Amino acid sequence: MDGKVLEFTLRGTILGILITLVFTAANVYLGLKVGLTFATSIPAAVISMAVLSAFKDSTILENNIVQTIASAAGTLSAIIFVLPGLLIVGWWADFPFWTSFWICASGGILGVLFTIPLRRAMVVNTDLPYPEGVAAAEVLEVGEAARKSDSTESREGLMAVIYGAVASAGLAIVAATGYATAEFTRYFRLDRFNWPNAASGFDMGFSLALVGAGYLVGLSVGMAMLLGLFISWGVAVPYLTAHPFPVPHNPFTLADVDNYTDFIWRKHVRFIGAGAIAVASVWTLMKLIGPVVSGVVSTLSASRAAKGGKGERTDTDMSPGAIALIALACLAVIAWLLFEFLQPTPLVGRTTALIATAIPFVFIGGFLIAAICGYMAGLIGASNSPISGVGILAILFCTLVLVAVVHPGADARQ
Q1: Cα–Cα distances in Å, from 36 out to 231, 385, 386?
Q2: How far apart are CA 225 and CA 199, in angstroms?
Q3: Do the Cβ atoms of 61 and 52 come closer than 8 Å?
Q4: Sign of the C-alpha dihedral, residues 252, 256, 257, 258?
Q5: Alpha-carbon span 28 to 181, nearest angstrom
Q6: 393-397 long-range Cβ contacts below 8 angstroms, 24+ apart
Q7: Is the pTM value of this prediction over 0.85?
């Protein structure tokens, strides 16, 4: 496929942008409503195949470009877990377009750059299942085989993909109209189980997309998630409802078991989960140090081979010089955003110190978060990756850095 095969085309780019707009809006709505986003690669691959099949010269590589562009809808929409906080605390009265645009652009491009040296460590030289990536590849391969041949197997595979997509969308529509229930939440006291003043609950949901993701991630990952559910709702929530922490104070009483238990879950147990993610992240990073270093070395070697005309097209990364130049441009934009953000604040006199501290934190912290999220996406899929939990950890570490640089005083508390 190293010949004149259509891959990065104008029509594919336009189609990818249009799909990204639609799926980003859907992800933002879903994320603000229920706190979840979904990976867009698989539905984008299906739509791309359906649209580009009208062109006789379309290829699987062109479809891959479309679904790759559209995959940004599932990543950039995660900004909803951060920016609304500025509205909630009253700092923003609305969303300033250009400020929000440059935040997304600089952070998003920097994150993509981080994935280049991580690719060899976490994709090429790894045994991670990448359930959604594998599923997207299977969709593209089935569609390409069906387009090129009239074999019964290819047609059956494509029809299975279409039936699955229609069934999943149909269930979502029926649930949204209220004719069926896709989610069910209930809280209850545990007095009858000889655990006085304790309560627990469950939040059940059904999605055909998650059924498919569960099949792809395998039994071991599914059992790990089930164990986490049991620890949270079978141990942590009952114990903390019976022996609550004094801070933050629970404004509800056990008589209002729904709100009381939900408060314990949101204000305590979720942070225990975030701590577990932090420990797992540190362990993951320790395991990834060697592969990441070897991946960076391999990237440099591949870059030198590409300059000599010896490297494979599919194994050629962006040159280290270009990566560094674009990264510096992104960091310059971030420094400008920080400068503008600090001007109306009481901390304007410490602008230089804060920017000098924030830029290395953004660069190093961003690389670590990219590695963590990439590993989790490879393990359990992007749809189930705990992006919000990682965001909480990033904010906590950022707070610690700020406290270390700006000692809390009268001017810092205004």
Answers
A1: 21, 10, 9
A2: 21
A3: no
A4: negative
A5: 22
A6: 393/274, 393/277, 393/278, 393/281, 394/365, 394/369, 395/82, 396/274, 397/361, 397/365
A7: no
How many beta carbons lie within 10 A of that of residue 169, not counting itself? 13
By CB neighbour count within 10 A (0-12 exposed, 13-18 middle, 19+ buried), where does 192 fall?
exposed
> What is the residue-averaged pLDDT of the chain?
79
Cα distance between residue 257 and residue 266, in whole Å: 14
Q: What is the pLDDT of residues 95-135, one digit of tens each?
A: 888 998 999 899 889 988 888 878 777 777 777 777 777 87
Q: What is the DSSP string of 78-119?
A: GGGGTTHHHHHTTS-SS--HHHHHHHHHHHHHHHHHHHHHHH
* Paired residues of 201 in beta bridges: 187
Measured from the Cβ of residue 151, the count of other Cβ atoms closer than 10 Å reads: 11
Q: The tokens of 187 are what?
A: 């809280």
What confidence score (pLDDT) does residue 287 get? 73
| Cα–Cα distance, 347 to 402 (Å, whole number) | 11
- Distances in Å between the Cα of 317 and the Cα atoms of 138, 184, 294 are 24, 47, 15
Six-digit token string for 370: 């990219």
Q: How far apart are CA 365 and CA 409, in angstroms?
A: 26
Decide: helix, strand or coil at residue 189: strand
Contact 298, 319 (CB under 8 A): no
Torsion of Cα atoms, 237 then 241 then 245 then 249, to 10°: 110
The DSSP line for 311-341 is S-GGG-PPPHHHHHHHHHHHHHHHHHHHHHH
Direct distance between the N- and C-terminal alpha carbons of the chain, in angstroms, rounded to an integer: 61
Helix (H, G, I), strand (E, B) or coil at 12: helix
- DSSP classification of residue 191: G
Distance CA 13, CA 234 (A): 48
pLDDT at 3: 52
Contacts of 83 (CB under 8 A, 6+ apart): 95, 100, 103
Mean pLDDT of 81-106: 85
Q: How far apart are CA 374 and CA 341, in angstroms?
A: 30
